[in-house]
Amino acid sequence: MRDFIYNAQAARVLFGAGSLQHLEREITLLGAQRALILCTPVQQGIAEQIATILGVRTAGIYPKAVMHVPAETAAAAVAEAVRVGADCALAVGGGSTTGLGKAIALQSGLPILAIPTTYAGSEMTPIYGITEAGLKKTGRDPRVLPRTVIYDPELSVSLPVGLSVTSAMNAIAHAAEGLYAQDSNPIMDLMAEEGIRALAAAIPAIRANPADIAARSNALYGAWLCGTVLGNVGMALHHKLCHTLGGTFNLPHAEVHTVILPHAMAFNAASAPAAMQKISRALGGAPAAQGLYELASQNGAPVSLRELGMKAEDLDTVVRLALQNPYWNPRPIVPENAVALRSLLQHAWEGVAPVSST
Ligand code: NAD
Predict the structure, then answer these.
(1) N or C: at which end does the chain have fewer Cβ atoms within 10 angstroms?
(2) Which CATH number does 12-156 carry?
(3) At the top level of CATH, which class does the domain 162-350 belong to?
(4) CA 65–ligand 1 middle distance (angstroms)
(5) Closest atom of ligand 1 relative to the 69 alpha carbon
(6) Spacing, Cα 69 to ligand 1 middle (Å)
C-alpha cells in the first residue's frame, strides 16, 4: 500500500429515477427559501417543470447558460440573482449550466443545488471556468462545489444519443487520467475503474434504447464516480490537449474528448501500465487504447478531429501550445517527445486506430 492523501469533498447526493420529487425538501435542507433556476435555452421546459415543483420557492428562471461561461453571462446572472432575491442557485443541465452556477457561487457565495442531465461530471468538482476576452480562466474554489446533487436518470432520457455517447466518453476520460494521476489514491482508483465499467456497459445499451432507465442510471452512476475522480486528482496530457483544442480551436467539448482519449492512452500506455490494466479490466479485457477506440467507433461517435472541423495545418500549433505550460504526465510533455505528440495528433486527426509509441 502506497502513502496517500485523500480529501473527502462534502456534497449530499440523491440518486435514483424519480428523485426530483424530493427537490423541495432538499432546498429546505440547504437552508434556502428562494432558488434561481439556471438552464440553457433548450432546457427551459425542464426548468419550468422544476419551477412548478418549487412553487413559491422559485425566485425565477435564468435560461441563458451557454458553453464556456462568458464573463458577461456570469455577471448578468449574478445581477439577476440579486434582483430576484435568490438565496440559492439551482443548475439543471450539463457542464455549461453547472458552470454558470459556479460563477454565481464564486461571486456571491450562494449555495448550488445541481441536477446534472449529461455525464460531464462538473457537479462533483470544485473547478470553475470563466471566459473573458476569448480566454478561459479556470480555478479551484471550495465555494463552487455544489452542496447538493440530485441524479435523476429520467432527466437524461432526452439527451440525444450522439451526445449521450460522447458525454459518457468525456466522463471515462476523467477516470482514465485519474488512474495515472501523480496524486492518485486507492479510493479514487476504485471509483475510476467502477466508473469506466458502468459507462462502458451503458453506452451500447443507451444506443439500443435511449429510454432504457437502467442504462441511463448506470451511465449517471458512472458519471458521478468519474466526476468525483476529476474533482479529486490532477489531470494530464489528455485534458491538456482537449482544453487546447476546445479553447483555441473552439471544437465541441465532449466530441473532442471522445476523439483524443484512445490516442492519449496509447501515448501513455508504456509509462502507466497499472492504469492501463485497470482500464482494460473495466472494458472487459481489450487493451485500454484499442478498447476505448472501439467503444467510440462501434457506437457511432466521431473518431477524427477532421470530422469535427479541425484543420490539418493547425496541428503543429497544438503541439506548441501543449509544450507551453505543460501538465504533469506519466510520459513527460517535453520537446524530446514533440514528434510522438505530433503523430498522436495526426492519428487523431485522421481517425485511425491508436498506435502505441515509446
Ligand atoms: P453542455 O452543458 O454544453 O450541454 C450540451 C447541450 O446539451 C446543451 O444545449 C444542453 O442544454 C443540452 N442538454 C443537456 N442535457 C440535456 C438533456 N438531458 N436533454 C436534452 N438536452 C440536453 O455540455 P456538457 O458536455 O455537459 O458540458 C460541457 C462544458 O462543461 C464545457 O464548457 C466544459 O469545460 C465544462 N465542464 C466543466 C467541468 C468542471 O469540473 N468545471 C467538468 C466537465 C465539463
Answers:
(1) N
(2) 3.40.50.1970
(3) mainly alpha
(4) 10
(5) 32
(6) 11
